[in-house]
Amino acid sequence: MEFIFVLDILGVVAFSISGVLAAMRKGLDVFGILIIAFATSVGGGTLRDVLIDTDVSWLTNMTYVYVIIITTIFGIILRNKLNYLRKSLFLFDTLGIGLYTVVGVEKAISAGLPPVICVAFGTMSACFGGVIRDILCNDIPVIFHQEIYATACILGGFSYFALAYFNLPQDLIFIISGLIVIAIRISAVVFKISLPKVY
Amino acid sequence: MEFIFVLDILGVVAFSISGVLAAMRKGLDVFGILIIAFATSVGGGTLRDVLIDTDVSWLTNMTYVYVIIITTIFGIILRNKLNYLRKSLFLFDTLGIGLYTVVGVEKAISAGLPPVICVAFGTMSACFGGVIRDILCNDIPVIFHQEIYATACILGGFSYFALAYFNLPQDLIFIISGLIVIAIRISAVVFKISLPKVY
Amino acid sequence: MEFIFVLDILGVVAFSISGVLAAMRKGLDVFGILIIAFATSVGGGTLRDVLIDTDVSWLTNMTYVYVIIITTIFGIILRNKLNYLRKSLFLFDTLGIGLYTVVGVEKAISAGLPPVICVAFGTMSACFGGVIRDILCNDIPVIFHQEIYATACILGGFSYFALAYFNLPQDLIFIISGLIVIAIRISAVVFKISLPKVY
């Protein structure tokens, strides 16, 4: 599925750049920037794989490593122009979380986990790279207190099981639930929808 | 052992509420509050299971997940009344760390680890959910600089091995060492005993 | 290899003391100081072993545990004199990262991982204890924004593979690439060389 591969790489690019930007904002050196780009990109999937106790994919698939290194270099060079790419990066990020949610759900299903946990793992795959980025940068994770982000993944994850209940073909379930994540996330940003805060 | 099950659930309730309170203090949204409640409740046991390389229990046992979700919802709704429940919550928390310490020690023993490491794992099971909560909330872990908490677990863990040395029956060892944790923790709070700080 | 064993212990001592100092600076109690000394010493190797999915070595080898406990006690007692030992501690630390880098690279090679990943794991073994220390102390990891440290490990890791390419004997590769880490690190401190920061 070449199409999926392209989405995956766009997601990694968007996640790396978000790491590069966060690290530059903190005045880190190039090593720090690279590590944070790396942790943002692969952190969620790594945590998922360690908890499920399956092989961590970037250990043997070098594509991710190279994409992250190249993105980090370009991100540093083009840092004053990244603002012009903001909309594209938002789009890549959104495509990325759509894909990673569904991939995470499917990985958890094939590990034989119950549906609610599978949804949690889909969300973790998409969102926890950002949580690790913020912890490394000594900030409270931004997804805990901003526009709807993880919630889009949760709803997309549940829709995966709703669609599976109606016996739709596998590919269609994959695409529709990914699109649900993407649609919710875009709506949340366009209409500035946040989860309620509690004081 | 229904008795143990009730203690376990009370512990999860107390840990979740402590997560909910910490997250609300930071102004997080409902997703952030839920994740921090979750991490506080299962974080210690999860770290233990990953390090021992055994199955992480909440992946397949949905009871914890449901208890945490329900507790979080009630915690948010009743947030202005939680202060009245302070004493009950302290009691639940204390029962919880007593139980988790002994459960953690026994899990480590059955993994064939040496006694000192088993005590460390008992303490980790009881205390590291709170460490993860504080890291996610961008605070220095409170158990590193406040009233005796982890120390109660360490002493309870060692008493487990002391009692085993005298060949007491398994159930009695379990109960006595759990009670030792609970007694030390309650005394520490009542008499305001802290570990020495070093400058 | 008694020689290696001595280096290893010196490294653990240096890492523990760096944890003790960081924890004391934050005003933590003796439990907090011990945990941070422990995390600084074994954190990098533990993360490596969890990701590779191999046994975590300090679970069964009590030597590390005892060395860390004893070092922490001495560190606390001698806290006002540690400044006089600064140069020795720097030397121990540098010997430590030289050794841990090469050990980490070799562990990753025997897990069948590709060279770039092996270098990453060597660097992680040497440096991520310090990252975990700084996260627990609520600081941005110091190796992300100071004098060359991780970079010495990365270069030493790559030189391991360069030397292996020329079919040098295993022991010689081990020693030379460790010495490269040490030489680069010492030069960086003596000549105050940092990586470029990016704003």
Give a structural overview.
The structure is a homotrimer of 199-residue chains. With 199 residues, chain A is an all-alpha fold. The first copy, chain A, has one domain (2-190). Helices cover 74% and strands 0% of the residues of chain A. Chain A has seven helices and no strands. Chain A has helices at 2-25, 30-52, 62-77, 86-110, 115-136, 150-165, 170-190. In chain A, α4 packs antiparallel against α7 (170-190). The termini of chain A are far apart. Chains A and B meet through α2, α5 and α6 of A and α2 and α3 of B.
Quick overview:
Chains A, B, C: Belongs to the UPF0126 family. Chain A is mainly alpha-helical.
Q: How confident is the prediction overall: mean pLDDT of chain A?
A: 91
Give the oligomer, counting copies of the same chain as homo and different chains as hetero.
homotrimer
Order of helices and strands of chain A: HHHHHHH
Outline the biggest β-sheet of chain A: none
Tell me the span between the first and last alpha carbons of chain A: 47 Å
Helix content of chain A: over 70%
In angstroms, what is the radius of gyration of chain A? 16 Å
Q: What is the 3D form of chain A?
A: globular
For the largest interface, the chains and their residue counts are: A-B, 28 and 28 residues
Strand content of chain A: under 5%
Structural class of chain A: mainly alpha
Low-pLDDT regions of chain A? none
Q: What is the count of structural domains of chain A?
A: 1
DSSP, total strands of chain A: 0
By DSSP (H or I, 4+ residues per run), the number of helices of chain A equals 7
